[in-house]
Amino acid sequence: MCDEPPSAGSLLKEFVSPGKGHWRDVSDEDWNSYRWQLQHRLTNLNQISTLMRLTPEEEAGFKLSGHKLATAITPYFFNLVEANDPGGPIRRQVIPRIEETHTAHWEMADPCGEDSHSPVPGLVHRYPDRVLLLVTDRCAAYCRYCTRSRLVSGASDYDFHPKIEQALTYIREHKEVRDVLVSGGDPLLLSDEKLDWLLGRLRAIRHVELVRIGSRIPIFLPQRVTPELCATLRRHQPLWMSIHTNHPRECTPEMKTACERLSDAGIPLGNQSVLLRGVNDDPVTMKALLQKLLMMRVRPYYIYQCDLITGSAHLRSSVSRGLEIMQSLRGHTTGYAVPQYVIDAPGGGGKVPVSPEYVIYRDEERVIFRNFEGKVFEYPEALSETAPQPTKPRQVEVV
Ligand SMILES: *Cc1c(COP(=O)(O)O)cnc(C)c1O
Ligand code: SF4
Hints:
By secondary structure, the protein is α/β, with parallel strands linked by helices. It folds into three domains: about 10-100, no CATH class; about 115-355, Alpha-Beta Barrel (TIM Barrel); about 360-395, no CATH class. The chain has helices at about 10-15, 30, 35-40, 45-50, 55-65, 75-80, 90-95, 165-175, 190-205, 215-220, 225-235, 255-265, 285-295, 320-330, and strands at about 125, 130-135, 180-185, 210-215, 240-245, 270-275, 300-305, 340-345, 350-355, 360, 365-370, 375-380. The radius of gyration is 23 Å and the shape is globular. The structure holds pyridoxal-5'-phosphate and iron/sulfur cluster.
C-alpha cells in the first residue's frame, strides 16, 4: 500500500467513507446513530459558515430561498460536501444558491402536474394500475432541485396534510391499483412502528400485489437502515425499493452496508438519478456511478431529465447531453448498468422514455439499424400471414 492520495479518477471508483470530519470528538456510538445524525443536522447559514467558506451566491441563496425549500444536511453527508470547490457535485445538490430564487421561462411549482391528478390529499393516481402515496413531507436532507419542493420541508405555504386513512380507502375501492409507491418526502423517516402499520395496512388489501418505497435515506442517512428497520420491512414482501443516488462519491462503505442490509432482507433495490448539470452530466461520472451501484446490488432504474421546477435552471442539463450519455452506456458497459432515460412530461403526462436513435429505417419488409459502434445492419421483417406479399422491394439508401 502506498500513502499517495487517491486521484480524482480513482475516487469515482472507490468506496470512500467521509469519516467524522469536524465531528471527530463525537463517539462512534453517537456518530452511527441515526437519531444523533438527525438531531445534529445543519440547517442554517450560521452553522454551515463556521464549517466552510460559502460563496456570496450561496450566502444569498441561504438568505433568500428559505421560504421555498429549507436547508438540512446530515453531518455524515456534509462530510462529503467539497468544502474547497463551490462547483463540487455534492455541494451543488444540497447547498442553496441565489439562482434558486430566479424563475426561468417554463418553470413551475408543480412541474409534473401531481396536484391535478390527486383524488385524495397525498395520493397521485396518474397511471392505470398504480398510485403514488406521499406519506410525509420530511427528508433527511433536501435536494435543491426537488420536484416536490412545493411540499417537502414545510418551508413554503403549501398545505400538505396527507390523509392516509382516506388514501387507504381509495386504494381499497380501486381494484385496478395493484402497485403502491410509497414516497414523500422520505418514508424511511417514519418510525419502524409507523412503517409496520402502514405497510401492513397496504398488504392487507387483496388487489395490492406489491408495495414500493422511494427513499434517499441510504444516501443521506445510511445509519437509519438498522437491522430492526430491515426486520420490519422483511415482514411485508414483496416490497421493492427505489433509492436516489446521483454521484459516485455518494457510494460510500456506509451506503454499501445499508444497501446490503436491505438486499439481504429480500428487498430488490433500484436506483433513480436526476441528470444534473455539473453533477453527473458527463459519461465518465455517470458510468462510474452506475457501475458502483451494481457492486452494491442496486439495479439502475431511471435517469430523469430534471423537472422544470422553479429555480432549477442552473442545475438542469440538456436532453442532448442526456442522450449522449445514454449512447455512451449501451454496449459499452453491463446491460444491467443501463437505466431508462425518461422525461416526466411537463404538466402531467407521466414518464416518457427518450433514447438515442438506433433504428435508421423501417418498413414492412425490413429494419435497418446501427449498433453501439455505429455499424449498420439489416433485419428482414417477419411477414404476417394475412398481409399481401410485397411486390417491389423498396431500395434503401444507407449512408
Ligand atoms: C413515477 C411515478 C409512478 C411509478 O412509475 P413507474 O414507471 O412504474 O416506476 C407512479 N405514479 C406516479 C404519479 C409517478 O410519478
Ligand atoms: S430526498 Fe427526494 S423528496 Fe426529499 S428533497 Fe430530495 S428529491 Fe425531494
